[in-house]
Amino acid sequence: MFDLNDQQKETRAWAREFAEREVLPRAAEMDRSATYDRAVIEAMFKAGLMGLLVPEQYGGRGLSALEHATAVEELARCDASTALVMSIHSSLVAALIAEFASDEMKDAVLPGLASSKVGAFALTEEDPSVPTKADPAGDAFTANGTKMYITNGPVADLIVLFAVTGVTETERDGKVRQRDEVSALLVDADAAGLTCTQIDGKMGLTAAPVGRMVFRDVSIPASRLVGERGEGLRMAMSMLNVGRIGAAAMAVGIGQAALEAARSYATTRVTGGRPIAKFQAVQLMVAESATRLEAARALTYQAASAADRGEPISELAAMAKLFASETASFVASKALQVHGGSGLVRELHPVERYFRDARVMEIIEGTSEIQKLVVAGHELKG
Ligand SMILES: Cc1cc2nc3c(=O)[nH]c(=O)nc-3n(C[C@H](O)[C@H](O)[C@H](O)COP(=O)(O)OP(=O)(O)OC[C@H]3O[C@@H](n4cnc5c(N)ncnc54)[C@H](O)[C@@H]3O)c2cc1C
Questions:
Q1: What is the pLDDT of residues 308-331, one digit of tens each?
Q2: What is the largest CA-CA distance in the chain?
Q3: Which CATH number does 6-118 carry?
Q4: How far is CA 212 from CA 13, 123, 127, 209, in A?
Q5: Model-level pTM greater than 0.90?
Q6: Does residue 247's CB lie within 6 angstroms of at least one atom of ligand 1?
Q7: Under CATH, what is the fold of the domain 120-229?
Q8: What separation in Å is there between the alpha carbon of 211 and the centre of ligand 1?
């Protein structure tokens, strides 16, 4: 088992207590209605959970990546939609501002992100062949385009938009190549010309507010540039590494919930006069699930610990996200199997929710295929 120190254990216990008290009682209804309960976001702000990665000087908790991962895991164990809301806000938006923004922007934005303002990270394009543009003119950029599947979009106050702000030229082998110059811009959700519609009908993470965001001549002051112009892609990739540890932690949390459900059902369900836990076929499903889950957790914590030591995390984060999301799907599928017919009925057991939520984890924050490409890029470089 991965050894957490006392402070890390305390953070984890605190997050578990919060999740069981504030999130778990609402999880089934939020899933059924596919509607996120704003009261949970307010409760997370009040408890300090939305500001875990915001430095203390800006009103956050200034915690380590490992502690953040344990908190995300505990939220996901109770409700994966809630974990996604928190993890995107925290590990992609707040952490990006804390890492790359000017001191002036940090002063202006971080206290809000720690206390009341929800952040969204708008990277994925509806049509990658027509990327969102933000044309510079005078002291402002004008954004046009459509971003897709943006978590927190429908409830966000602040959006980090990644958009093409020009073209850069690079020379290689005597040939000049042109490349889109991508920059990150901070946009207020109520900016004129910006609309966001909720995407309904997701198979999993149904309650997570995910939106389609349309920018039509949205004017963004040049002062809202995050970091340097043209550095957007580098910043996005760097944050996605952090975000992938959060996604891996989410998957571990879903897997943990599914394993606990399988264990509990196996010991109480009686067929042929014996609890089904006495049947070797059931024991094998639980044993394999527990083993894979422990390995996924170790890999996730290892990636988070490497981040805390300031080591390169790209490969480890991709491995953790890949392995943990596929493990969550495996464990949730086996938990469903252990429940027999009753596992299919959401009014009876939450395992079918775990199964649907786990499957989504293999796609968001980079598909399994993309994680493998990242790992291969490290293993086969040179
Ligand atoms: C619930 C949810 C929340 C999300 N939240 C956010 C968010 O907050 N912000 C944000 O910016 N995005 C968000 N996303 C988008 C998510 O990150 C993307 O859906 C995901 O990365 C896959 O991209 P895509 O949908 O464009 O699929 P595509 O890139 O079109 O991929 C389609 C298929 O092709 C494969 N493929 C694509 N390119 C390659 C390649 N080069 N090599 C091999 N195979 C490839 C993929 O693996 C996949 O199987 C969210 C998505 C969901 C479902």
A1: 999 999 999 999 999 999 999 999
A2: 79
A3: 1.10.540.10
A4: 36, 11, 12, 10
A5: yes
A6: no
A7: Butyryl-CoA Dehydrogenase, subunit A; domain 2 (2.40.110)
A8: 14
Q: How many angstroms separate the alpha carbon of residue 240 from the centre of ligand 1?
A: 12
Give nearest CA residue, ligand 1 atom 21.
Answer: 366
- Active-site annotation holds for 365: yes
Distance from C-alpha of 187 to C-alpha of 183, rounded to nearest angstrom: 13
Model confidence pLDDT, tens digit, residues 204-225 = 999 999 999 999 999 999 999 9
The architecture CATH gives domain 234-379:
Up-down Bundle (1.20)
Domain residue spans of the chain: 6-118, 120-229, 234-379
360 touches ligand 1 (CB under 6 Å):
yes
Q: Whose CA is nearest to atom 26 of ligand 1?
A: 124
List of residues 6+ apart from 9 with CB closer than 8 A:
none
Contact 191, 218 (CB under 8 A): yes
Residue in 10, 169, 365, 369 annotated catalytic: 365
Instruction: Encode pLDDT of 166-207 as tens digits.
Output: 998 888 788 888 899 999 999 999 999 999 999 999 999 999
Question: Is 22's C-beta closer than 6 angstroms to any atom of ligand 1?
Answer: no
